[in-house]
């Protein structure tokens, strides 16, 4: 195995057309941060690279819909994402952006070298063109009827109704989203990376050389390679992105999949003038942290780009995670079905580590996992509070009580004491093994085992009882407890950095390197600790209920937005319709019908008379709300007795997609009794 001098950690660039959510965190940024912090604690040289992906069609679409420029969109979300990461404690060495001048220069130079080296092929094809706006249309700028399910608002790359992947040519009755016109097919030239030329090399490099990669990553790579690779366009017709640096390529930009990973290189350039040692020295270990939707780009396409360029190192590992779902449903930005990081930070101040803990403990490392607010509450209350926080608090409070906060000296150790202290090094080895294999969920479990060990040791030793008969023994017990507590500040530092900063303040100790983990003399006798506070606090049911209700409201709003309009009923004749006498009227009085939930008794001025109507609207309106309400009323409906009340007519109501009822009423004032024609 190569003995690397340094580690370059990259994390997938979040797309700057919306904020970051917990799916992004669990899949990419939390594990990457744990790894970076762990390596730094081991004294290793680390560059942890992040940044915003700011090019591509979705950003131009969002800008068009909001009536602003693409730069306005990326400025807004880059700032929001960067601030959220900083507050959450993701320890990037740099967080850059692909709209920066350094990135544009770097991406252009990369393209130029491949172009001049003959690494691209040119292909001319017919693509849809909007003649009115004089521009070629990206797939997302074209809508039409899905050929698979008949959905009339399918995009040129996908139908969001049936989920089918599409090409623009398959759409029935395609339309330009810019002008609304039918686009025409027009020839355009683009440059392609011939991936098929790298198939043999990729088989050797990945399938033979990296069998240690995670099975989901290795399996997806094998599937792509075995299926046969095809040329992939590196340029496209668009006015937002890195301009293609060729005189003949006016109006074309680098395809976002091509320019985005180069963002790792450009960000490193911004970080240090010694950027080449991170990208061109074989003694640098490069690890990409991504979600499973990015595997092909980081394992096949980007390595092929680097291989074609010739001077860059290749990733040593790509520990991609699966997806995190939310309350049993796939996280969706378009449906607002997410827990957004910036909102979490506002609503749960000081609980950054709680979310990190839950997302790590439930990380989708080998399969899709589910985040629920009940699980969040349970892990906080039953693990962080009841295990880690409980042990730490009891150890420090008893030290304050018995020794005014000074660390007592250890006397002769019993077998139980020695076993407890020896277990620290055993747990340390397990955590190291798990992290080296990118199994952060497992590593966190072992770290929590140290807190469980402390809890059991303290409970079994019962110093609160022994102090009455053998106070010297209690000094040893408490010394052991405090040494375990000090070790907890090290073992949990990569996972819960804010909480361990807090715990070190309680212990009055400096931050220690990983090599100190396992020592049993971290706190010398006589060392003065500080007055402790609770490390974690219990989260009550009402806090969780508020978050659940917030999601339920989102789900309800989505159902309303996507509800299908009921189909038309069978045709009726004009004579049938003409028999109905519908008039305008005003509700004069209203009261609930006793022993019913839905019925209101209404007195209505129809302009013809004043009559009683029993209406099933009590679930949506109180009697006080409806008095004075203008209504449309069918006055020639045959009277009917309801709950002993003679009802003479029916008021017209519209039922919304959420089932609620709304009055059908004139927009402008009209006289009661006016006929509705």
TrEMBL record:
Motif window: 'KMSKS' region: 330-334
Recorded GO MF terms: ATP binding; metal ion binding; methionine-tRNA ligase activity; tRNA binding
Function, in words: Is required not only for elongation of protein synthesis but also for the initiation of all mRNA translation through initiator tRNA(fMet) aminoacylation.
PANTHER family for this protein: METHIONINE--TRNA LIGASE, METHIONINE--TRNA LIGASE, CYTOPLASMIC
Cellular localisation: Cytoplasm
Assembly and oligomerization: Homodimer.
Main location: cytoplasm
Cofactor stoichiometry and binding remark: Binds 1 zinc ion per subunit.
Reactions the enzyme catalyzes: tRNA(Met) + L-methionine + ATP = L-methionyl-tRNA(Met) + AMP + diphosphate
Binding positions for Zn(2+) per the UniProt entry: 146, 149, 159, 162
Sequence similarity: Belongs to the class-I aminoacyl-tRNA synthetase family. MetG type 1 subfamily.
Cofactors: Zn(2+)
Motif ('HIGH' region): 14-24
Domain TRNA-binding span(s) in chain numbering: 576-677
Annotated NCBIfam families: metG, metG_C_term, PRK00133.1
Keywords: Aminoacyl-tRNA synthetase, ATP-binding, Cytoplasm, Ligase, Metal-binding, Nucleotide-binding, Protein biosynthesis, RNA-binding, tRNA-binding, Zinc
Enzyme class, spelled out: ligase
Underlying gene: metG
Domain of life (superkingdom): Bacteria
Pfam family, one: tRNA_bind
GO biological process per UniProt: methionyl-tRNA aminoacylation
GO terms for cellular component: cytosol
Taxonomic lineage from the root: Bacteria, Pseudomonadati, Bacteroidota, Bacteroidia, Marinilabiliales
Classification via InterPro entries: aa-tRNA-synth_I_CS (IPR001412), Anticodon_Met (IPR041872), Met-tRNA-synth_bsu_C (IPR004495), Met-tRNA_ligase_1 (IPR023458), Met-tRNA_synth (IPR014758), Methionyl/Leucyl_tRNA_Synth (IPR015413), MetRS_core (IPR033911), MetRS_Zn (IPR029038)
Protein name (database record): Methionine--tRNA ligase
EC number: 6.1.1.10
Ligand binding (ATP): 333
